[in-house]
Design a protein that fits this description.
Ribosomal Protein S5, domain 2, 8 strands, two-stranded antiparallel ribbon, alpha+beta, six-stranded mixed sheet
Length: 128
């Protein structure tokens, strides 16, 4: 626990700003804002067309391993084709980083082209 100076009340520090990355990708539908949180057990990525993030279609993917040659994923708040696109993003990132990845997409105009633009952009930032 950390104590603020002159205060007997303990403050628990949960996450530092070093664990959060803010990016903006210029896409065919305009700017997409991306927030990446490096968690102890994986990555959480938030996507939004606005600077204010919101809940949306979500997918969780685990990287290949233990007899699986491809990542495995599942989706939440499912709504048709968008679900497949968000799952694909999560699976690619899980595969590249060898970490569990959760993606929360607040993008209302997500399509295959935008997904590919985002994956190309993110590969440059996530793959060393």
């Amino acid at each position: 626990m950390i104590y603020l100076s002159a205060s007997p009340i303990p403050v628990v520090v949960l996450m530092g700003f070093d664990d959060i990355t803010e990016l903006t990708s210029e896409t065919s539908i305009g700017d997409v804002y991306i927030r990446i949180l490096n968690l102890e057990n994986g990555l959480l990525l938030l996507f939004s067309e606005k600077e204010q993030y919101r809940l949306g279609i979500s997918a969780v993917a685990i990287p290949p391993g233990q007899g699986r040659s491809e990542p495995t994923s599942t989706a939440l708040f499912t709504m048709g084709l968008d679900t497949t696109l968000v799952r694909t993003i999560a699976e690619r990132i899980a595969s590249w980083t060898s970490n569990t990845c959760m993606v929360v997409s607040g993008i209302t105009k997500l399509n295959r082209d935008v997904m590919m633009e985002l994956l190309t952009f993110l590969r440059d930032h996530l793959v060393a």
